[in-house]
Write a structure and sequence with these properties.
The chain has about 300 residues and is mostly helical. The protein is built from twelve helices and two strands.
């Protein structure tokens, strides 16, 4: 073979995909530090988006609107929620502003909080595919499983942040508009403000954990399409459908298996002693939904043909 034949010409260059795949395969097992860097990058990307900021702003505004409405309604001396209407705890807000935290969480949990989670989870994979960045994320030494877990962890972090935004906003408004102090539990016993504050934090954590199932469902839907808008709309649509089905008496045999059925069980944390049965059922059901739809998302994403 001559020297000229040994030099590759324009038509004998190695394929670009092979050139990229070689170093990627060599670093296919990134360390913990690299994984944390990917998670931190995902968090920064998610929370810098105007859509995320707008969602958090809406969630923060709900306790403000509820608090101002109660303040205006009770300015003539009447009791809020005297007729038994409105979210749980609303009749106690005028006596203790801390109850606005529980009221705001009860008001946002059926729709506003899961809708926000559905938007973030639905856009997790489908949004990257639509923007054309998913392929480049997989070229990096992430791997599909690691990337999917990072997306889910980011969504769960948003669940916690969104819930705390509602709780902190409600606590601030409650402290400004209503008195604070010892509070009366649902069982009629008195507890200190410090203990009530601790229970409010615990309730916020339970509410965030109650959204685990919605996050897994949204992530699964996100792996089914390359359209972020379609994934978000489908997730929110499924959420609304389940909420409607949960209110139909004829479906009472199925309702305990709906992910939203035990959402408001967090109110049992304000009993003395705490009633744990429905709380445990709720967390167990959320874990089941997370396992089922998380596995389905992994199976779909692992076999997904990434062309964009």
């Amino acid at each position: 073979m001559s020297r000229a034949e040994a030099v590759p010409g324009p038509d004998t260059r190695p394929d670009l995909g092979e050139a990229v795949a070689a170093p990627a395969g060599a670093t296919r097992s990134p360390g913990l530090l690299w994984t944390f860097g990917l998670f931190r990058s995902e968090l920064a990307t998610t929370f810098r988006r105007w859509r995320t900021i707008a969602l958090l702003g809406v969630l923060a505004a709900v306790p403000i609107l509820v608090g101002v409405a109660i303040r205006i309604e009770t300015s003539d001396g009447s009791a809020a929620g005297g007729g038994g209407e409105g979210p749980a705890f609303i009749s106690q807000v005028t006596n203790n502003g801390l109850f606005l935290v529980f009221t705001a969480l009860a008001a946002t949990l059926p729709f506003f909080l899961p809708m926000a989670i559905g938007v973030i989870a639905g856009d997790a994979i489908a949004g990257e595919a639509n923007a054309g960045t998913l392929r480049y994320l997989l070229v990096a030494p992430a791997g599909r499983t690691r990337l999917l877990l990072t997306k889910y962890a980011t969504t769960m972090t948003f669940c916690l942040v969104a819930t705390l935004v509602v709780a902190v906003s409600a606590l601030t408004v409650g402290a400004l508009l209503f008195p604070l102090g010892d509070l009366t539990t649902i069982s009629g016993t008195r507890i200190s403000f410090a203990e009530g504050l601790g229970r409010a934090l615990f309730i916020a954590l339970v509410v965030a954990a109650s959204l685990v199932g919605v996050a897994a469902l949204g992530l699964f839907v996100s792996t089914l399409t390359n359209s972020g808008i379609a994934a978000m709309a489908t997730t929110v649509g499924l959420l609304i459908t389940v909420q409607i089905l949960d209110q139909i008496p004829q479906l009472h045999a199925l309702q305990p298996y709906f992910f939203s059925h035990y959402w408001l069980s967090f109110a049992d944390l304000m009993r003395e002693p705490v009633y744990w049965d429905d709380l445990v059922r709720n967390l167990g059901l959320q874990g089941l939904y997370a396992a089922v739809f998380g596995s389905a998302a992994w199976a779909r994403f692992a076999a997904k043909d990434i062309t964009v």
